[in-house]
Amino acid sequence: SPKELTNQALKELNALKDKKHIEQGNFRDFYVELIDIMRRFLSVQYRIPADVLLTDDLIAYMKQNHSISQENEAVVEKVFLRGDLVKFAKIFPSVEMMNEDWNSCSALVKASLKDIEFEKLRKDV
User: Fold this and answer.
1) For 53, which DSSP code?
2) pLDDT for 50-67, tens place per residue?
3) Interacting residues of 40 by C-beta distance below 8 A, sequence separation 6+
4) From residue 24, how far is each of 33, 82, 90, 103 by CA, in Å?
5) Tens digits of per-residue pLDDT, 79-96?
6) DSSP state of 47
7) Rounded to an integer, what is the distance from CA 21 to the centroid of its chain?
8) 50, 58, 78, 107: most buried by Cβ count inside 10 Å?
9) Helix (H) or strand (E) holding 84
10) Which of 121, 124, 117, 105 is nearest to 42 (CA)?
11) How far, in Å, CA of 23 to CA of 98, rounded?
12) pTM score
């Protein structure tokens, strides 16, 4: 159920936080894992092919399909693009940035239930 998927993703996000990547400055590991969690979540919760699309294609797909609220779309765009830059050592994120991205992802996961309700309401009309 959407609620179970939400709880599972929140568990995974908390487990990621407990690994202390942020405090230890393992930003590459942090973003790889954060984005893996989010890709899995988006693909099951929203049925977006987030597990197979590259970041740019994923963002384009979300914008075309409106399957996710604009706020949540903005979070995915910000976090995934930053994650790509970190992965290729183009930027070195601050602790604040990493915490902010974790919080944004966590908020997106929690907000997803509202998105899905809204989708259902729209489809029933």
Assistant:
1) S
2) 999 999 999 999 999 887
3) 9, 50, 51
4) 15, 19, 19, 18
5) 999 999 999 888 899 999
6) -
7) 17
8) 50
9) helix 70-87
10) 105
11) 10
12) 0.91
What would the pLDDT profile of 15-37 be if each residue is shown by its tens digit?
999 999 999 999 999 999 999 99
Q: Which residues contact 92 (CB under 8 A, 6 or more apart)?
A: 27, 86
> Is the Cα torsion angle 16, 21, 22, 28 positive or negative in sign?
negative
Q: How far apart are CA 41 and CA 58, in angstroms?
A: 13
The pair of structure tokens assigned to 119 is 């989708």
The band of 123, judged by pLDDT with boundaries at 50, 70 and 90, is: low
Q: Are 50 and 39 in contact (CB under 8 A)?
A: yes
Give CA–CA dist 61/12, Å, rounded.
25
